[in-house]
């Protein structure tokens, strides 16, 4: 079994890469795919770049060229709910592309027109194993629910209110839903595990700089615990 691991930014993958026993690297679509062993598993780990297009291309390459059996997306995210704070973990059980908008045709916001699903549901077993990993890290606050993705760094209270009201989203980021979308089309089980770097409000870009290192540490800890038990 091969697990594809995707992060958007170098800083989200560097701890993991430092612990990986690397066997081979391949560059495709300007992304470096690192094949090797990590915490007892065969993995391909890759930094995809920011946004939905980069991440979808990356997930498709993992599917088509590396034939991965599962995909895990890790990294940081903006917290939407007031109870969620920097460093907390959010495990997605489903994802939606919040910037998809064909409402002028009568579709709901986020609905991809002519698609047979509204949200992309994460694999139940992967969600369970992420939950278990969080149970073993009791010092981390964990939330499970919907993550929404769009090609926007959200730093606006009105936008957060809308994302919460419209999608009941716990957190927002820029890649998870397009990775989920790609995995759905390729029938590959997936899960998205993020740690909060900011509250997607007016000071989000400052908090993002400050809290990304701790958020990366936390999301990597959960991934490690998960992989060690897989
Ligand atoms: N990733 C981390 N914080 C984010 C935010 N506020 N909006 C979008 N993606 C993010």
TrEMBL record:
CDD domains: MTAN (cd09008). Its EC number is 3.2.2.9. One of its GO terms (cellular component) is cytosol. Transmembrane segments: none annotated. The keyword Amino-acid biosynthesis applies. Keywords: Amino-acid biosynthesis, Glycosidase, Hydrolase, Methionine biosynthesis. It comes from the Bacteria. Pfam families: PNP_UDP_1 (PF01048). GO terms for biological process: L-methionine salvage from methylthioadenosine; L-methionine salvage from S-adenosylmethionine; nucleoside catabolic process. InterPro entries: MTA_SAH_Nsdase, Nucleoside_phosphorylase_d, Nucleoside_phosphorylase_sf. Residues 3-227 form the Nucleoside phosphorylase domain. It is an enzyme of class 3 (hydrolase). GO terms for molecular function: adenosylhomocysteine nucleosidase activity; methylthioadenosine nucleosidase activity. Pathway: Amino-acid biosynthesis; L-methionine biosynthesis via salvage pathway; S-methyl-5-thio-alpha-D-ribose 1-phosphate from S-methyl-5'-thioadenosine (hydrolase route): step 1/2. PANTHER family: 5'-METHYLTHIOADENOSINE/S-ADENOSYLHOMOCYSTEINE NUCLEOSIDASE, 5'-METHYLTHIOADENOSINE_S-ADENOSYLHOMOCYSTEINE NUCLEOSIDASE. This is adenosylhomocysteine nucleosidase. It comes from Clostridium vincentii. The lineage of its organism: Bacteria, Bacillati, Bacillota, Clostridia, Eubacteriales.
